[in-house]
């Protein structure tokens, strides 16, 4: 069920019972996909939109010589390919980082829900704008942040995004990314990522164990990363659209 999506959208505006019921009704066809599989390939134009219910995926671009740049992390509650409601074909690939469960929603069914539930439409616009803000921060990281700042910023961002959908426990969150996947995200080498992780552990900032990240000092990590969570727009900016019940 799309509970993570609903929880995320309600950081923008409170949905009505009818809104939530409509979103639950979309998740009828669910499939499981293994780790390191392509959900979508560059150039695909499916007639459905995929919503991640469980697990992690990523958007990526791959050069002809095999080099890969991860351009977004797709978490539970995220659409893999909402752009296809507007665009004819995908201009990047979407691959799994862990085993995932995805709901495959016919584009026509999603458009019908958006037409009948304008509050959901407004909330999904908010989600799209937040995704664009995340992309801007990633551009700043690749262009200006040091290696340590990049890794710290990524960890802070993932922690806040996971907290938004209820997947943190205190100061701990899932982090199933390998060092290679972190490197492909941040434009670093695997060796460089390893050094930054060692430095952060040595400074008493984080613990990484069993695919779980514990942030021992979140304010200090955010200071190192030059991280300001404002770009995630978590302040209920659509509260004027709140449903009454």
From TrEMBL:
SUPFAM superfamilies: cAMP-binding domain-like (SSF51206), Winged helix' DNA-binding domain (SSF46785)
HTH crp-type domain sequence ranges: 145-219
Pfam families: cNMP_binding, HTH_Crp_2
GO biological-process terms attached to the record: regulation of DNA-templated transcription
InterPro entries, alphabetized: cNMP-bd_dom, cNMP-bd_dom_sf, HTH_CRP, RmlC-like_jellyroll, WH-like_DNA-bd_sf, WH_DNA-bd_sf
Highest taxon of source: Bacteria
Gene3D superfamilies given in the database record: Jelly Rolls (2.60.120.10), Winged helix-like DNA-binding domain superfamily/Winged helix DNA-binding domain (1.10.10.10)
CDD domains named among the record's database cross-references: CAP_ED
Signal peptide: none
Keywords in alphabetical order: DNA-binding, Transcription, Transcription regulation
The keyword Transcription regulation is assigned to this record: yes
Any GO molecular function: DNA binding
Name of the protein: Nitrogen fixation regulation protein FixK
Organism this protein belongs to: Methylobacterium hispanicum
